[in-house]
Design brief:
6 helices; 50s Ribosomal Protein L17, Chain: A; 2 domains; mainly alpha; 188 residues
Amino acid sequence: MRHGKKHNHLGRTTSHRKAMLANMASSLITHKRITTTLAKAKALRVYVEPIITKSKNDTTHSRRTVFAYLQNKEVVTELFRDVAAKVAGRPGGYTRIIKLNNRLGDNAEMALIELVDYNEVYGKDAAAAEKKTTRRGRTKAKKADAPAAEVKEEAAPVAEAKEEVAEAPVAEEAAPEAPAADDAEEKA
């Protein structure tokens, strides 16, 4: 029985599997996306996501811990400098696996694994979705204030109309006086 056994051994010895996952993780961090089999991509995601989480805390201890997994100084430097800055606001889920067509030679299921924050196609939509915030519901206090605000807004145009009406008769009254003055001049 295989109760509680989480890891896919990928048909390799422990040392071979660790070396392969370290190399694949280094390639993923360097190139931001790699194509591999679906089983390896799923195993790599489990391997690399804790490493990326560890890189968010830039201390000597975390750098040494990550180096113990990756065994490549340049990759560790890039991870802590560039990748960690991009994923700083993300609470996990740093990678995305996209299934591809089966491989021609042996019909193996292929997949593309990539770092989520480095994909420009999906990144623009995500940034636009972050900026746009919609409120679905209102609280009772806002509902009570909303009709009062609408009444005030409706009252303002009515008040402006009354002012226009008040000005209009004054203008009409002034106009008849002027002809009366002209009549007085004509009589004189």
